[in-house]
Amino acid sequence: MYDLYSADLADGAAWVVKTDAGVAVTPTTVVVDAATKSWAISFTGDGKHTITLVPPANLSAAEIGGYPDNGFEADTLTVTMPEA
Which of 41, 60, 67, 82 lies at 20 to 30 Å from 20 by C-alpha? Predict the structure, then answer.
């Protein structure tokens, strides 16, 4: 996935970030990290947050996945941000 879509997924619109209470948080930046084949997602907030990709239909609409690759689906990552 990284090799095909690293630049496409370096877009805050491709990610869903929510607080532990389920409140949406807008990513401020998404930066490609070529050394680890990952993305560094920045946002403002502290405490627990969940991070995942938008649903497969949204990714397909952004031409990420879709025929013939089918859609992509992501698991959820939980991170705890330190208090400022």
Answer: 60
Among positive and negative, which fits the CA dihedral 77, 22, 82, 16? positive
CA angle 13, 34, 80 (to 5 degrees): 60
pTM metric for this prediction: 0.85
CATH number, domain with residue 63: 2.60.40
pLDDT band at residue 68, thresholds of 50, 70 and 90? Answer: low
Number of domains within the chain: 1
